[in-house]
Amino acid sequence: MAEPLLSARGLTKRFRSGNQPVPVLRNLSLGLGRGESLALTGRSGSGKSTLLNILCGLEKPDAGRVQVLEDVFDSRNSGNDRRVEGRWAALRRQRIGVVFQDANLMPALSLLDNVRLRARLAGQGEDGCGDWLERLGIGELAGRYPDQVSGGQRQRAALAMVFAMRPALILADEPTGSLDRHTAEAVIQQLFDLQARHGCGLILATHDTELATRCSHHLDLGHLPEA
Ligand SMILES: Nc1ncnc2c1ncn2[C@@H]1O[C@H](COP(=O)(O)OP(=O)(O)OP(=O)(O)O)[C@@H](O)[C@H]1O
Ligand SMILES: [Mg+2]
């Protein structure tokens, strides 16, 4: 078994819509070792994004425990909320690279400066930031601002930001969702290359079954559980 990187036990989450409970995750457990990859699949609305958000501390589970590297977060003894949020924020700054469905770039910075900022915040050097944009096929757009490029180009810039921080764990929510097949293939290749080179863990949510089969593990969230 690979050295453990992340483990989640008994995750339960429900939202509310008016008076109606919307159950999303029920007693879900998973584990990931260094160098391993996990594909999350399932119908739209089955809870993939919710799970990724819980695994990086952006959403709180109603019950359950998440361990990332040496950090443990247990819903039963959440303690001081601000301290808990601070620990999650530090993990996202330095150890967990997160790529969302909506690429989260700073609008006032060029694509290259977005990547540089991300690297700096993670304590990495800025050398090679432009190379990441090149490898993802958007090197010539380095000086443009996020609103001057397409959605798929923004998504690739967001991936370059994650690569530049050299994280221990990458969480990617449909990282190729807005890309054509050819570009998606190139981006995925970079993702798996990076993972092999640095031995980081990778969890990605995807509707692409072929991409899911390329991951070492697969978790199908299927349908929403019954209320
Ligand atoms: N803040 C919220 N309040 C209420 N319901 C929510 C909230 N966020 C998500 N949901 C509901 O929780 C369920 C799971 O949503 P989630 O975004 O995790 O699905 P998903 O598997 O990522 O879907 P997709 O494939 O469309 O991205 C959906 O029914 C959604 O409507
Ligand atoms: Mg989603």
Structure in words:
By secondary structure, the chain is an alpha/beta fold. Helices cover 34% and strands 27% of the residues. It has seven helices and nine strands. It has helices at residues 48-55, 81-94, 111-121, 129-135, 151-164, 181-198, 209-213, and strands at 4-17, 20-33, 37-41, 63-68, 71-74, 96-99, 169-173, 201-205, 217-220. It has a five-stranded parallel beta sheet, sandwiched between helices. A four-stranded antiparallel beta sheet has the order 2-1-4-5, with helices on one face. Strand 7 (169-173), helix 6 and strand 8 (201-205) form a beta-alpha-beta unit. Helix 3 runs parallel beside helix 5. It starts with a strand and ends in a 7-residue tail after the last strand. The model has no long low-confidence stretch (mean pLDDT 90). Bound molecules: adenosine-5'-triphosphate and magnesium ion (MG).
How would you briefly describe this protein structure?
By secondary structure, the chain is an alpha/beta fold. The chain is built from seven helices and nine strands, in the order βββαββαβαααβαβαβ. The longest helix has 18 residues.
> What's the N-to-C terminus distance?
36 Å
| Strand ordering within the main sheet | 6-7-8-3-9
Instruction: Compute the average pLDDT.
Output: 90
- Residues in β-strands, percent: 25-35%
